[in-house]
């Protein structure tokens, strides 16, 4: 089980966390609906970073369950990670390099 904390992790580490499926795990995709439709991590939920109410949507999430967080390249997720830290989230694993790095690591995406 991944240690609690707000941290940046390599794609392989994020995949291992997802495979272990800790209780309550949320895989959070902060890209646009179009990007999400092109391919996302299996089981991910999406909140578009560019939405006007993004911060409010984040605040609605359970801060006490573990998260794997990602975007396309790591830029939006790093900003979201900071917001989540300020909101009191306890365990956030931000995928370094986002979906680009995830795919480069040979990890799968789904489109349904």
Secondary structure blueprint with pairings:
Elements: E1 5-9, H1 11-20, E2 26-29, H2 33-38, E3 45-46, H3 54-59, E4 67-70, H4 75-86, E5 91-95, H5 98-104
List its salient traits.
112 residues, five-stranded parallel beta sheet, 5 helices, alpha/beta
Mean pLDDT: 95
List low-pLDDT spans.
none
Helix content range: 25-40%
The strands making up the biggest β-sheet line up spatially as 1-5-4-2-3
Structural class: alpha/beta
* Binned strand content: 15-25%
Describe this structure in words.
By secondary structure, the chain is α/β, with parallel strands linked by helices. The chain is built from 5 helices and 5 strands; from the N terminus they run E-H-E-H-E-H-E-H-E-H. It has helices at 11-20, 33-38, 54-59, 75-86, 98-104, and strands spanning 5-9, 26-29, 45-46, 67-70, 91-95. Helix 4 links the parallel strand 4 and strand 5. The termini are far apart.
């Amino acid at each position: 089980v991944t240690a609690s904390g707000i941290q940046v992790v390599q794609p392989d580490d994020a995949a291992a966390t997802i495979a272990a499926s800790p209780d309550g795990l949320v895989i959070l995709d902060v890209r646009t609906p179009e990007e999400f439709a092109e391919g996302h991590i299996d089981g991910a939920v999406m909140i578009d970073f560019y939405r006007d109410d993004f911060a409010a949507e984040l605040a609605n999430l359970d801060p006490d369950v573990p998260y794997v967080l990602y975007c396309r390249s790591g830029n939006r997720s790093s900003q979201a990670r900071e917001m989540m830290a300020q909101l009191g989230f306890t365990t956030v694993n931000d995928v370094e390099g986002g979906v680009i790095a995830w795919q480069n690591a040979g990890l799968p995406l789904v489109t349904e």
